[in-house]
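My current task is to audit a protein record that another person submitted. My question to you is simply how this chain folds and whether the C-alpha cells agree. This is what I was given:
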Amino acid sequence: MFLIDAHALCYRAYYAIKGLTNSRGQETNAVYGFINILKKILREYDPKYIAICFDTPAKTHREEKYEQYKIQRPHMPDGLIAQIPLIKKVVRAYGLTILECDGYEADDVIATIVGKIKAPDLDIVIASDDKDVYQLVDKRVKVFNSKQNRILEKYDVIKILGFDPQYMTDYIALAGDATDNIPGIKGIGQVSARKLIDQFGDLSSVLKNIDNIKPERLKNLIQQQKQDAALSKELAILDQKVPLQITLKGLSMGEPNNKELFALFSELELRKFAQEIAENMPQDAQVEAQDLKDKKDLEKLIRLIKKEKTFSFVCLGDPDPYQSLNGCTISIFCKKDCVYTLGQDLIKELNDVFSDTTITKITCDIKSDLKKLKNLGIDDANNIFDVTLAGHLLQPERNLLEINDLCWKYLKRSSLNQKNDPINTKNIFDLYQPLHKELKKNDLLKLLLDIEIPLAFILVVMEERGVALDTKFLKNLSKECHNHMEDMAKHLYEIAGQEFNLNSPKQLSEILFVKLGLPVIKKTKTGFSTNEAVLKQLSSQHELPALILEYRQMAKLLSTYIDALPLLVDAADGKIHATFDQSGTETGRLSSRDPNLQNIPIRTDLGRRIRRAFIAENKENFILSADYSQIELRILAHLSKDETLHNAFEKDQDIHQYTAALIFDVNQKNVTKDMRNVAKRVNFGIIYGMSPFGLAKDLEITYEQADEFITRYFRRYNKVKDFMDQQIALCEKNGYVTTLLNRRRYIPDIKSPNVGIRQFAQRQAINTPVQGTAADLIKLAMIDIHRAMAIKNMKSGMIITVHDELVFDVRPGELDDLCRLVKEKMEKALTLSVPVKVALKRGKNWLDMEKIV
C-alpha cells in the first residue's frame, strides 16, 4: 500500500519545475511534477492499495494549540493553489482515492491509515519527503524518498537520524523543528538531542533523569523549558484518530478513466502524458478504408459529395511535389464511415468536384496538396479549408501544429495516425466543424478565408517558380572569403602572440583574459564568456575582440549562405525553391526555409553582397523590388491616432529627422547625422517596447541619457504612450492582443510574477498589433497583385517576400505596367489614416538596383 503526502509532493514539484504553462497561461508545473512521481510509483511498484492525502485550507488542531505553528511559512503561491484542483481531477481520473479532513494535515491522515490498517503481510510505503513521517516507520512501514527515488527501510532511517525512528517526536521535542516552527528547547541543537536520546531514550525518560544530565548548562535548559518540550512533542506527534471512514477495500487501486485522463492532459497541453494515454485508447476515428477502383463506385462517391457539399481529402504518396508522383493517391472522406482511396487513373475524374465553388474541400496541408493535385491533372481546386492554418490562427503560439495536436484539443481524441494514413482523412473531416465554429466565435474566419487560404495559392506559385541563383558569383565570393579568413587568422595569431583555435571559446578566453589581461565581463559555468555581447564591449579596449567578431560573422555567412545556397539549387532549372511558411511566427509574418530568405543580413557589406547572387531568370528580365516605406511607424500613427506623428507622414517628412528635431528641440535643418541616428533608434525601439536600458545598450550611452530621450519622445508623441499603455492593459485583461484585421496573439506571460518575463511580454503586447498589422497588409497586397497580374495575363512573377518587401522577376515588356500595378495595389491594400508609400527599384540582381521614380 502506498500512502502519498500530496501536499508535500505538490510543493516540491512546483518549485522544482519552472516556467511550465499551457497556451492560456495556466501554470502546469506542479501538475506535471506530481504526475511524474505518481506514474513512477504506479509503474515501478504496482501498488495494490493507494491513498492520495491532501491538506485542507482550514485551520489545523496544531494551530489551535500553538498559534506560531508554521507561521513563518509563506502562504501557498497562487500558481500552486490554482493547480491543486487540477491535480485532484487527474488523481480521480486515475481511479485513486483522495483523503483529506478539515483540521488535520495530510500526515495525520497517513498516520490514521497506518494505525487502522493492520492487514497481515501488507507492506505500507509512505511517499513523502517530510521527515515527520519517520515516526511511523517500523518493520512494515517504509518511506519512499522521491528525491533519492528509493524506498527507505527502518535501518535506512536509523542511519539517517542516528536513532530509532520511534524517538522522532522526542528528538523534535528537544531540538525543535525550524520547518514547522516547533520551538523545542532553545539552546539544544541536533547533536545534543541525539546524545540525550542515545543516553536516556524518550522525552519522559530525559525529564525523569534531569539530575543526571551534564553539563549543568544543558540540565538548566531542560529544567527551564520542559513545558516547551512537552508542547513540541505534542505538536510533532501525528494524530492517528482523524475522523475518516477508512477500509482496506476502499483504498484498492481503481481502473483509470483513459478518456478523461486524455481530455485533462490535452486541455493542460501535457502532450507526453496525453500521448502515453492515447497509445492505450481505441482510436475514436476508426473507420473502414477502401480502395476505390470501379468507375461506378466513383460515380456514387461523386454524387454523395455533390449532395453533402463537403468532403475531406489528403494526397498520399511521395511527399515531394517536384518529384515523380507515380503511386500517388488521394484519400477522401464524405459523411459515411468509409475512407476511399483513389489511384491516379481515377483522380482526374474528380476535376469537376474540386472546381465546384459550392463544395467545401477540407485538408491539412494546402500548399503541398495543391502542388500534387496540379501534377495529377487537377489545376482548378478552390474553396479549400485547411485545418492546420485554422488551428494556427486559433493557437499562433504553437508552431507547426499537427493533426494530433488539433484532435487532442478540439475532438478530445487521440490521433496517432500520420497524414499519409487514410484514416486521418476522417480526423480532418471531423475537425472542420469545431474549428469553423471557433474561428467564427473569435472573429477569425474572414482572416482565414480571405487572406491565409488565398495566400497559400500564391505561395504555391512562388515556390514552384523559384529564384535564379548566380552560383559562379557565390563560388568566387566563397574563395574570396576563405582567403580573407586565412589572412585574418594569421593577423589574429600575431596579435595574440601564438596560434590558437579561433572557434574554441575556452582557448579564446585564455588569450583575452589571461594573456592579454582584458577585464572579465561575464562568467559562465565553464569559465569566462566570449559571446558577441562580451566581445563588442571589449572591442573598445583592444583590436582582437573586434577582429574575432568580424571573423565569426564571415564564417557564419559562409556556412549559412555563401557555401550553402548552391547546394539548394535544383539541377533541373538552376533555381532555388524556398518554402514559405504561414504558421512559423506568432505575429503573422511569413517565414521561409531552405533557404531562410528573411535572415539574409543587409547591415554589413558582405551580407548585402549575398543579395547579388539572386538574379533574374534570364538576361532580358529584371528584378523588381517593392518596399513599404516606414510601414510600421505609419501603422503606429494610425493605431495611436497621434496628431504629431500623423502630421509628419501627411507632410511626407523624413520621419527620423522630424523626430530628431522634436526630441532635441532644434530646427530640422540643424539635425545632425548623429541626432538622426538617435531618433531612428528611438522610433524603431518604441515599436518594440524598448526600455531606457535597452536603448542605452543599443546607442552605447548612459541609462539617464536614454531615459531622457524616451521621455522627450513621449512628450512630443504623447498618444503613442497612451496607445502602448492601452495595449498592455488590454492584454492583461484578455490575455491577447489583436491586429487591425483581428489576428490574435496570446501572451500568457503578461501576468508572470517574474519581472523580466512580464516586461518582455509587455513589449510583445506593444509590438504585435503593429508588426502583425504590417504582416497582414503585405499579405493583402500579395493577393491583390497576384489577381491583377492574372487578369492581365502577365508572365512576370512574384518570387520573394521578405517582411515589408516584395521581389518580382519581370519580363522587360511588362516592367512599366507591373511597376504601376504593384505600387497601386501595395499602397491601397489597407486604408490607413496616413499615406502609405512604396519605394520601387529595378536591376539585374537583388543588390545592384536603381530607384524607379
Observations:
- The chain has four domains: 2-161+239-251, 282-443, 467-576, 584-642+717-853.
- The first helix runs from residue 6 to 16.
- Residues 321-325 have pLDDT under 50 and may be disordered.
- Residues 493 and 565 are 31 Å apart (CA to CA).
